[in-house]
Automatic annotation (TrEMBL):
Gene3D superfamilies: Tetratricopeptide repeat domain. This is Uncharacterized protein. The chain crosses the membrane at residues 15-34. Residues 47-65 have a biased composition (Low complexity). It comes from Solidesulfovibrio magneticus (strain ATCC 700980 / DSM 13731 / RS-1). Pfam families: TPR_12. Residues 41-65 are annotated as: Disordered.
Length: 207
């Protein structure tokens, strides 16, 4: 996301996590957000990511269950973005709050608007990728992660989430391993969600 949070699965909100098992992370470290969706380890080390998004009605119910303060903040940001359509920070925060309340269909356009105004933010791209993954648009998710990595090749969460989508959604383990190896080449000491060193994740995923 773009503020502060934590999670795992496709890691998101700034870097969030995707998945049931291998969480996807979209994390913005040091001041950014990391969110998680699911975290249930599977055999072989990497979690199996395939969290299905709830139907629209369920998403609406989840949003309604959010705290009154959070809902008030969302309403305030919706109004602010109408009055100040060029306010990047407002669009990003609105996307983050939609992300937090499981409203990917609303988070996606908010993040897209943020990126239109301020292109090249790898954390927002990572969170956007997580949201696309949540609506089963896996190619769009990979496109976002790849864009984030083109800007910051050592982005741990984008690399992790990319490996999750490749392995669990695209059934391409070789490319998933390659994504983690690319991260290791850039940052050999990188630690993935769950405190797992990237070298260990590569070894387990290669088995």
């Amino acid at each position: 996301m773009g503020t502060n949070k934590s999670g795992e699965a496709t890691v998101g909100r700034s870097a969030a996590i995707l998945g049931a098992g291998l969480a996807l992370l979209a994390g913005i470290f040091l001041g950014f957000t990391i969110r998680g969706m699911m975290d249930s380890p599977s055999k072989g080390g990497m979690p199996a990511a395939q969290q299905q998004m709830p139907p629209p009605q369920a998403q609406q119910q989840q949003a309604q269950q959010a705290s009154p303060a959070l809902l008030d903040r969302i309403k305030a940001l919706e109004k602010q973005t109408q009055l100040e359509p060029a306010n990047v920070a407002a669009w990003t925060e609105l996307g983050n709050l939609y992300f937090d309340t499981d409203q990917p269909e609303k988070a996606i356009p908010a993040y897209e608007k943020s990126l239109t105004l301020e292109p090249g933010n790898p954390d927002v791209l990572t969170d956007l990728g997580v949201m696309y993954r949540h609506v089963n648009k896996f190619d769009k998710a990979l496109e976002c992660f790849n864009k984030a990595l083109a800007i910051n090749a050592g982005h741990v969460i984008a690399s992790y989430n990319k490996s999750i989508v490749l392995e669990h959604d695209k059934n391409d383990r070789a490319s998933a391993v390659a994504a983690l190896k690319a991260l290791a080449a850039k940052n050999p000491q990188a630690v993935l969600p769950g405190n797992k060193p990237v070298a260990q994740a590569i070894q387990e995923l290669s088995q």
